[in-house]
């Protein structure tokens, strides 16, 4: 009899808890807000910025390249014109956004995270020609209008949307995105391209043609750390499998100059991209170290006291 009472109590508690959760979500829905200047300032500037002038605030915001506005109950994307056109990363996951809009003023966007919102259509991003990483997992997207996807995308995550159950879903996306390397956490293989009716040879080409292409693919490799960061964020979602696999990284490139010449294929393409990205990263590292040394020299010089005008040799200590 006691067991029955315990079971009944558990059921009662479960119903009460679920009811409370529903009320909390309803309350959150009613309090959705627009992406505003105040919200951006709260997340990216120090508390004393409340005393700054409008010009000072805009000046500081223009220095930001990565904007994080996740978990803010945002219902509408707005006020992006207050940000710098050089912003490359925009994180808007775990909000209440129903429409992708007002991103025209961010032409250099490379990473856009919109996971766990209420988006029904992928739209208004086809002008983002530098976008390499797009995450719109766990939304309400029933059909993907592939023409709205920028062809620069290398990593795409649509898992948790109704559209992934369509039979032609994967092939349509592969046809649209020639640079795509990962879809919904899985690597795009040569077989996937063949199944989609895409000629692998025409995509890869020879090594010389690939070296003449734009550096968008290289930028995708440089954003691997953001892909890994999103993996960590996604794995924290309660009861929802939406992990985004980071791109495969070639870890042993020490003797890459001695690699034999082999026919071009998708693996050669990925390796060439990584090698060029590594070379460019090494150059940037050298420039950064040089700049850091210059800054260090300036700081050292600034700490040296100037020689007074009345300085004489008599003030020197006797070293004999």
TrEMBL record:
Residues 200-238 are annotated as: Disordered. It comes from Biomphalaria pfeifferi. It is found in: Cell projection, Cilium. The keyword Repeat applies. Transmembrane segments: none annotated. Residues 208-231 have a biased composition (Acidic residues). PANTHER family: LEUCINE-RICH REPEAT-CONTAINING PROTEIN 46, PROTEIN PHOSPHATASE 1 REGULATORY SUBUNIT SDS22-RELATED. This is Leucine-rich repeat-containing protein 46. It comes from the Eukaryota. Keywords: Cell projection, Cilium, Leucine-rich repeat, Repeat. The keyword Protein biosynthesis does not apply. Signal peptide: none annotated.
